[in-house]
Amino acid sequence: MGVGRWVSLLLAFGCLFGVLDASAGDADPLYRNCVVQCEKTGNIGDHAIQHCKFSFTDVPLNGSWYMQKPLYLQWKQLNCRSDCRYYCMMQSEYQREKLGLGPAKYHGKWPFKRVFVFQEPLSAVLSAFNLLMHFIGWLTFFILVSYKLPLRPQSRRTYYEDFDLTEKLDYSSAVAVLGYSLILSLLRIFNVKDEASRVMFAAPILAFVTTHILYLNFYEMDYGWNMKVCLVMGVSQILMWVIWGGVTRHPSRFKLWTAMLGCALAMLLEIYDFPPFHGYVDAHALWHATTIPLTYLWWSFIKDDAKFRTSTLVKKVK
Q: Where is the signal peptide, in residue numbers (predicted)?
């Protein structure tokens, strides 16, 4: 590919990133003032926040260890802040609807209606199915390489109520998983075997991912920048796998291409997202739905690739 094509590709990504916006709802002074007053008084209008109605004098001196301060109080304060943010968000969205305005994002997420303790109930359910597919895929892969193939391998990561901590863990873990999968993709695509070369491939990516996570957690939670970083790592992996499958003429390349095409289409749901329908179903929830069959397809390719590599090594030995 010539330099001109690479420049065009980078310009295309630049235009793509231009459509990404950071949160706007939590920047509203009315919303911020509502949260501050709620945490101080424990009330939003006539609505009392139960978790904010707690004082130090309410803790019994001879109570159990989990009732003693500061552990229990800190947990109550986290629930208080989470509830204040939620009810202030609902109040703000009610006012916006009366003014004829559309929904706004708060802390990087659309306003969802809670179901029990789940802020994004549908995403939580679909995530559980996704996890199940990963577990089944890993288990079948483990059985394959451990008991069915002739060669043995050498020994050598919420949608609960949002807190500051859970929010940071959510974004940090997503970046970490993308960085780890990028390293594995490079090692497999370029068939890197010796330890020194693996370190040379992994070290720059580990350094960047670590720096990015530290930036999000201790400097600024920049949702727009984080989306750009995740997109670059995700798109780069899709392109590498598609090109590699064609160049090597892998026997399961059509399965690989189908999985990568599905990932690319699912990624559009993360870029061009839309507010939750009736407060429950948004683009992110649909993205979780698409990852369930894609996860099955991806693990199927991994097992096919393990069989292919094993047969290649056996032929070389013979």
A: 1-22
DSSP code string of 145-205: IIIISSS-PPP----BS--HHHHHHHHHHHHHHHHHHHHHHHHHHTT--SHHHHHHHHHHH
What CA dihedral angle connects 185, 189, 191 and 195, to 10 degrees? -30
Global pTM? 0.61
> Which carries the bigger pLDDT value, residue 206 or residue 273?
206
DSSP 8-state assignment for residue 277 = B
- Asked whether 263 and 234 are in contact (CB, 8 A), the reply is yes
- The set of residues, in sequence order, having a beta carbon less than 8 Å from that of 143 and lying 6+ positions away, is none
Confidence category of residue 192, pLDDT binned at 50, 70, 90: very high
Higher pLDDT, 135 or 92: 92
Q: What is the DSSP letter of 106?
A: B
Burial group, residue 258, by CB count within 10 angstroms (0-12, 13-18, 19+):
middle
d(CA 80, CA 74): 10
Q: How far apart are CA 89 and CA 95, in angstroms?
A: 10
Give 16-43 as a 3 state SS string: HHCCCCCCCHHHCHHHHHHHHHHHHHCE
* CA 149 to centroid of chain Cα atoms: 34
Report the half-sphere exposure of 97 (CA within 13 A, side-chain side).
10
Identify the helix (H) or strand (E) that includes residue 117: none
3-state secondary structure of 222: coil
Is the pLDDT reported for residue 290 higher than 90? no
